[in-house]
Amino acid sequence: MPSILFLRDAIFALILLPLMAVHHVVATDYVVGDDDGWNTGTNYLTWSEKYNFTVGDVLVFRYLAGQHDVYQVTEETYRSCNSSSGVLRRYASGADRVALEEATTYWFICNTSGHCLGGMKFGISVANSSSQGGVEAQAPAQGGAAPRGAPAWLLGLTIGMWGSLCY
Ligand SMILES: *[C@@H]1O[C@H](CO)[C@@H](O)[C@H](O)[C@H]1NC(C)=O
Ligand SMILES: *[C@@H]1O[C@H](CO)[C@@H](O)[C@H](O)[C@H]1NC(C)=O
Ligand SMILES: *[C@@H]1O[C@H](CO)[C@@H](O)[C@H](O)[C@H]1NC(C)=O
Ligand SMILES: *[C@@H]1O[C@H](CO)[C@@H](O)[C@H](O)[C@H]1NC(C)=O
Ligand SMILES: [Cu+2]
After folding, report:
1. Which CDD domains match (predicted)?
2. Residue 37: which CATH number?
3. Ligand 4 centre from 110 Cα, in Å?
């Protein structure tokens, strides 16, 4: 029944839009490498291009402590992989949380011998939270799955409300 389907989508949009706007100011944790974590054999350039990072977000590095580490470095050191200078911060716990506090470009390498040259390195630019305010305020795709990052309870709530309105 088209009219009911239309109603569903309209309700979906009405409920979701304000919540998406709220969601956007909430900090997000990003696990570096997603399920692969921080290791050799993952393309971190590809990973770094998957997301838009905003001030307040957190990078989580997961790896076996002792096998890898995390250095936040200057762009020059990122390019040369020579950590004799240009190291800003070091992490080595295996479950490091790096808060992205500034709207700037962050550069990371692994300092285990050979790993940076092998590709355990990436840079991300972090945007001011206000500068992206409008970007996500778009209607969700037709028939859409939950937008990336929308919490599961939100999807549940939305489906629950469709149910009570449509059936
Ligand atoms: C990141 O931002 C760009 C430019 O605003 C946009 O085209 C792209 O879809 C965004 N990517 C994600 C994953 O949100
Ligand atoms: C790294 O840089 C330092 C200081 O510039 C230099 O002495 C050293 O030879 C460099 N190491 C490598 C492996 O290039
Ligand atoms: C981000 O916002 C702060 C404060 O609102 C401002 O001082 C800074 O210049 C902005 N940075 C960028 C890169 O837009
Ligand atoms: C970082 O790596 C370099 C080159 O492998 C090594 O000489 C240096 O000791 C390492 N730094 C630390 C703190 O382990
Ligand atoms: Cu490593």
Report:
1. Phytocyanin (cd04216)
2. 2.60.40.420
3. 10
